[in-house]
Structures are given as C-alpha cells and as structure tokens.
Amino acid sequence: MSLPFSILTFLLLLFLSSSAAAARKSDAPTDDIVRSSCVHASYPNVCVRTLSSYAGSACKTPRDLARAAVNVSLSRTRRVSSYLAHISAGDSKRQREALSDCTEQISDSVDSLSMTLGELQHLQGGETFEWHMSNAQTWVSAALTNDDTCLDGFEGIDGKVKSDVKRKVTNLGRVTSNALYMIKRLDESRGKHL
C-alpha cells in the first residue's frame, strides 16, 4: 500500500514542478525584454524593478516599454505633486518659497509627461516619426529639468522637509531618466519594431 502512495506522491510532485517550469518559461520572453532593455539604462535596477510589473502581454515591443516607463514616471510624478501640495513648509519664508516653486515645477512635469504619452501613442514609422520622437524627448527632458530645478530651490535650507522632498524628487528623477532612455532607444531603431 505504501508503494502506490509513493508513486502517486512522486507523480504529483513531478506534475507540479513541470507546471511551475512551464509557467516560468512562459514569463521568460517578457522578463527578457525588460532585462535586456534596462541593462544600459541610467538606473538599471530601478528600471527592471519598475517595468517588471508591466511585463506581460501588454509589453512586447520597445514602444510598449517606453510607454510603460513614461507611465511609471507620470504616476510617481503625480504622487510627488500630491505630496508637495499637502505638506507644510514651516515658518521659514525661504522654505515656503522653495516648496511653492517645487510644487509648480513638478506640476509642469505632470503636464510634460502626459504630452509625452500622447506623442508615443501617435508614434509610427514613416515621415512623422522624427517629429513625434523629438517632442517626446523634449518633454521628458523638460520633466527632468523640472526635477533638478525643484531641488535647486532647497539649496542652503536644512530640515526634514528638504530631506523628504530631496529623496522623493531624486527617486522621481531616476525613473524619469530611465523613461528618457527608453524613448531614445526607439529613436536609435528609427521606429523599427514599434
């Protein structure tokens, strides 16, 4: 009686392990596109971590990855914008001004990244490719500049507000830099494999 139970247990384990291997194998191509695309990004670990959740049937091409990267940046920019709108800058006039300027800069970044998504939506090979690509790169670059400008306003100011803002905006800059990298990869391929 123990022999059939052992065989049954063995067969069950064999079935489960082959099912798990098949599931891993089916995810491999999308993981591969994310990993291979992120390898030369400015922040490769951040790139893989943030884009892995987009891997799957909706993320098969370089354009899909570029859109996903911009979506990540836009989502984080909106969160930082909301955070900035709800924190208190304290009593320092200089800190209040820096926070107000930073809030405006990050709000402008939301607009720039939203326009970038629109350009990527219309991106096709052919005559208009360079026009849309140039617009997308310009707007993501503007968002990166806004991040830097936001942080510049806190120069010479100390305290928790500055350190919190700096941490959040620095992380935001990393995902936005990776988004710009993904868009530039599209430009290098000149629209092939969109």
Report a brief summary of the structure.
With 194 residues, this protein is an all-alpha fold. It has 6 helices and no strands.
Shape: globular
Helix content: over 70%
Distance between the termini: 60 Å
**Domain tally:** 1
Number of helices: 6
Total beta-strand segments: 0
Briefly note the CATH topology name. Butyryl-CoA Dehydrogenase, subunit A, domain 3
What is the overall pLDDT average?
Answer: 83
Rg measurement, Å:
22 Å
SS content category: mainly alpha
Topology of helices and strands:
Layout: H1 2-38, H2 44-51, H3 62-86, H4 93-122, H5 129-152, H6 160-189
Helix pairs in contact: 3-4, 3-6, 4-5, 5-6
Describe this structure in words.
With 194 residues, the protein is an all-alpha fold. It has a single domain (2-189), classed as Butyryl-CoA Dehydrogenase, subunit A, domain 3 (Up-down Bundle), CATH 1.20.140.40. 79% of the residues lie in helices and 0% in strands. It contains six helices and no strands. The chain has helices at residues 2-38, 44-51, 62-86, 93-122, 129-152, 160-189. Helix 3 runs antiparallel to helix 6 (160-189), helix 4 (93-122) packs antiparallel against helix 5 (129-152) and helix 5 packs antiparallel against helix 6 (160-189). The longest helix is centred in the N-terminal third of the chain and has 37 residues, at 2-38. 34% of the residues are buried. Mean pLDDT is 83; it is low at 19-30.
